[in-house]
Amino acid sequence: MKLILGMGITGLSVARFFSNNNEIFRIADSRKESSLLKTFQKENLLDDCYMGEWSQSILEDIDEVIISPGIAQSETIVQWIREKKIKLLSDIELFGRYSNAPIIGITGSNGKSTVTQLLGEMALASNLNAVICGNIGSPVLESISDTAELYIVELSSYQLDYTSELDLFAGVITNISPDHLDRYENFEAYIASKLSIYPYCENVIINLDESLQSGMAGDSYFAIEKNNSNCIFLVRKAGNSYEVLYQDKLLVSSNELLVVGKHNIENLLAALTLGYQFGLPIKEMIKAAKTFKGLPHRLEFITSINHVDFYNDSKSTNAVSTKTAVNSLLEKYSQLVLILGGIAKQENYSELVELINEKVETVVLIGDSSKVFSEQLSVPTLKIARSMEEAVGLSKSLTKNGAVVLSPACASFDMFDDFNDRGNQFKHHVNEGS
Known about the structure:
- It is a single chain.
- The protein is α/β, with parallel strands linked by helices.
- It has 3 domains: 2-89, NAD(P)-binding Rossmann-like Domain (Rossmann fold); 93-291, Mur-like, catalytic domain (UDP-N-acetylmuramoyl-L-alanine:D-glutamate ligase, 3-Layer(aba) Sandwich); 300-431, Alpha-Beta Complex (Protein-Tyrosine Phosphatase, Chain A), CATH 3.90.190.20.
- 33% of the residues lie in helices and 22% in strands.
- The protein contains 14 helices and 20 strands.
- The strands form 4 sheets. The protein has a 6-stranded parallel beta sheet with strand order 7-8-6-9-10-11, with helices on one face. A 6-stranded mixed beta sheet has the order 15-16-20-17-18-19, sandwiched between helices. It has a 5-stranded parallel beta sheet with strand order 3-2-1-4-5.
- Strand 2, helix 2 (37-42) and strand 3 form a beta-alpha-beta unit.
- Helix 5 (112-125) crosses helix 9.
- The termini are far apart.
């Protein structure tokens, strides 16, 4: 019998998959309640269900366990499973058994969602029936399609931890930086988790700018700083922009892209290299790249109104993220209006404040942190807005060219349901009356 551990989104997708394939299964969760419990009940997926503190009795008659990525390896139930030598696997590994088309896997600390989406749009622009799934959106088991020609899957380190068998046409690690260290014993363990993707790959794609991948043998390479003849696509700096070339022919300049920042050139190179390896036409990939707006709420291009470009970066809830947004936009624009504020986190904002005071002319403050920021900022124009509607209205009136960006550097719960709500309200008011 199969055991599904975890009654979240992943567990639900596995239960549905087993039910549709007439597979007998048991499902268990250490929580006494699940937000999806009613969905499980409505779909009759709880014939054999256990909720509450882990017990070894859950493992009786079990020959295989499919575990949700949210369950840490340190949990008692995982130790019991390994002691009993019961097969333990992720939904990704199960998906790999049944997928009927090549799989490209994308992981990394930052940029993996963007690369996954961009590559997916490149494949679709090439008239390929590509399915974008995994950590980015739809669970993989709910994405299996008889007509799929390519699966482009975002993989988290948690999913890789529980995967031991997987066939990938190609795979990439966008970059590696300290993350999820509450889950891993140390940074080295996290690095090992990310690097575990490569043995599953027929084609290994290496980011030469990532020091932790430096010296590794790959099948294809990409880089900005360490770009060399081993890279399929070359990069050169041209003033404040970057140019991407193939066989000495200019393909695209960063000025032609809707997304901004050096990090998005790196994302573009990763997607192009993966797509090239799969055989996607370069012309169609570049066409898709030029219309790619980025992911929602992540320095997302919204629209251009009267020579002013508007960007939604509501996902930036800390100082580091907003610094990246400001620096990225200032590579392209000489004038910038920044909408900043919300519930400030317990972090040091001094570097962000210094950057804004030095390089940003106009700031519109929102939320609880308005008073604190207003005392620290010394920009030429500083306004405080009581609503997103007012903030957008002020931004439109205060600039005649350049860009406006919502990049709050703060949590959203003082004025909005969450960062999605904040970003959606921003987009609504930007487009209102445009």
